[in-house]
Design brief:
The protein has 15 helices and 28 strands. With 545 residues, it is α/β, with parallel strands linked by helices. The strands form six sheets. Strands 3-2-4-1-13-12-14-15-16-17-18 form an eleven-stranded mixed β-sheet, with helices on both faces.
Length: 545
């Protein structure tokens, strides 16, 4: 079943019920807004900005955008890029693209203008939809990318180099276009990266998206009266596929802007949320705020909150033990996945296995797992090897990159994850290390090679290596070990000033001036660096404590 049929079903059977809520605590507004009209009731002065949409209006908005795309020549197999912060328009636009038979291509909102341009070209995007936060970045490349593409702007005060989504869709039909879709049709392209850090375009079919919805409901038991609090960005497969659990169960979801502990708990309380997916930093922030008295549980209505689950990075056992001290009744789950496996769920702990916290879990619903050696032969139980997964959610390929596809997939449909793992006697899988050097900081992937290449452009730098160091809040932080050229001097402040040209999340959080060891073949000996500076970082943090 194509994923779009779930939306049509919800609109038909429960059209007047609320599907999505956008909540922005950073803005206080005197109006309670729906997509159709303003509510005349005046909220309390501290009421956050809030919009909502029903399943019927959701479906109609998707149809309007689909008909707009068709009127502009979009055909089955074309691609439409989505560059938006989380908002009430995001998902109707996504489903509008799918309803035309075109491929939805979500873009990371952290991308700089050159990365946006690279991904637009790599995925052969025909139309780019973007929001107000990206006007400057898109304007920088508009002359180059708009030659053979259309630019649609979502928001007020449309820039001159784009067309207004709001104005154009208002005149389009809300009737579904007559486009036949099947499970085997291509549906979406998501972006990931290889060991070099350059984005790869990951192609998925409708059957993969639909399977991810089934997996999510099987794992977390969403029912119609559940309310899912979605905080991570919707361009990410994790957020999208977890929300698919709300789609398949026809249950409400809240898109929260902001991650402060008081924002999260207030949203859970106001909207009666029952399921919350957190990243490690956000969970840690909540615990810290409770510990130091900045927030108090008794100030919020949290009794209906039944499930907290975490994904996107390794989860410290101590965090979950601490969480259970405040929320002993919570179910807990952790999910492992990749964009190549349509996000979370190919491995998951399971709410019934909280006594195995520390493991990433067991194969998810409909998934198979193996641990293999360098020749891709199964290792013995307890031995470390590369984790491989197989199931209906595995990607078709890396778009236009046969070589990269063949490096991670075999003819039997196994996807080799690049993560090193082992399996215990009870069948639970544990991550041991990453085969690649990707740093995962706050759920975002940071690619050392990109930062290293950038720092090599700084005159005083002779050599540089970027590694990840453990961090209580973010999971990992990036550290740059810099070897200074003879005759040069340099300070940490000068390096940080140079790094201001990088997106904020890519800037090294720690600068270390030291020699960069390389082996006989010229490769940086990063294991040695992790051993040296990882231990030093641990001692420093213990001293801080």
């Amino acid at each position: 079943m194509p994923i779009t049929e779930l939306l049509v079903k919800n609109a038909k059977e429960h059209g007047d019920e609320v599907a999505l809520i956008e909540l922005n605590p950073t803005i206080k507004d005197a109006r309670r807004m729906t997509w159709k009209e303003y509510d005349l009731i005046q909220p309390e002065p501290d009421e956050p900005y809030r919009r909502e949409i029903t399943w019927r209006i959701f479906d109609e908005k998707a149809n309007r955008f689909a008909n707009l795309l068709l009127s502009r020549g979009i055909q089955k197999g074309d691609k439409v890029g989505i560059l938006l912060m989380n908002c009430l328009e995001w998902l109707p636009i996504y489903f509008g693209v799918l309803k035309t038979g075109a491929l939805a291509v979500p873009l990371n909102f952290r991308y700089a203008s050159d990365e946006i341009e690279y991904c637009v070209n790599l995925a052969e995007i025909d139309i780019l939809v973007f929001g107000p936060e990206f006007i400057g970045r898109v304007e920088e490349i508009a002359d180059r990318i708009s030659e053979h593409r259309l630019l649609f702007y979502v928001g007020e005060n449309c820039p001159t180099f784009a067309e207004s989504y709001n104005t154009m869709t208002a005149d389009c039909s809300s009737v579904a276009p007559d486009i036949t879709l099947t499970d085997e049709d291509y549906a979406a392209i998501y972006f990931s990266s290889g060991t070099t850090g350059f984005p790869k375009a990951i192609l998925h079919k409708h059957r993969a998206l639909t399977h991810s919805a089934i997996v999510e409901q099987k794992h977390h038991g969403q029912k119609k009266d559940d309310v899912f609090l979605c905080i991570p960005p919707l361009y990410h497969t994790g957020a999208k596929m977890h929300w698919f659990g709300s789609l398949i169960s026809c249950s409400k979801a809240v898109l929260l802007k902001g991650t402060k502990p008081e924002f999260v708990l207030d949203a859970v309380s106001r909207e009666k949320c029952t399921i919350v997916w957190l990243l490690v930093p956000w969970a840690q922030d909540i615990l810290d705020a409770l510990d130091n008295g900045e927030i108090k549980q008794d100030d919020y209505e949290l009794s209906q909150w039944r499930l907290m689950h975490i994904g996107a990075q390794p989860v410290p056992r101590s965090l979950i033990r601490h969480w259970r001290e405040y929320f002993p009744e919570h179910q807990y789950d952790t999910n492992y996945g990749l964009s190549e496996s349509i996000g979370p769920g190919c491995v998951h702990l399971g709410v019934e296995n909280i006594d195995h916290v520390g493991a990433i879990g067991i194969p998810g619903y409909g998934w198979e797992c193996r641990i293999v050696d360098e020749q891709r032969n199964d290792v013995k139980p307890g031995e470390v090897g590369e984790l491989a997964v197989k199931g209906p959610g595995v990607m078709v390929c890396y778009y236009h990159d046969e070589k990269a596809t063949n490096e991670v997939m075999d003819s039997d449909g196994w996807l080799y994850t690049g993560d090193m793992a082992k399996q215990d006697e009870e069948g639970f899988y544990y991550l041991v290390d990453r085969k690649k050097d990707v740093i995962i900081s706050g759920g975002e992937n940071i690619y050392p090679v990109q930062i290293e290449d950038f720092l090599h452009g700084f005159d005083p730098v002779d050599d540089v290596a970027v590694i990840g160091l453990a961090d209580k809040r973010l999971g990992e932080i990036s550290a740059a070990i810099i070897e200074i050229k003879k005759g040069y001097t340099c300070t940490e402040e000068e390096v940080q000033e140079f790094c201001r040209k990088l997106p904020k999340y890519k800037r090294p959080k720690k600068i270390i001036f030291a020699d960069v060891p390389r082996n006989a073949t010229g490769k940086i000996e990063k294991p040695k660096l992790r051993e040296i500076y990882g231990a030093m970082n641990l001692v420093a943090k213990e001293n801080e404590g």
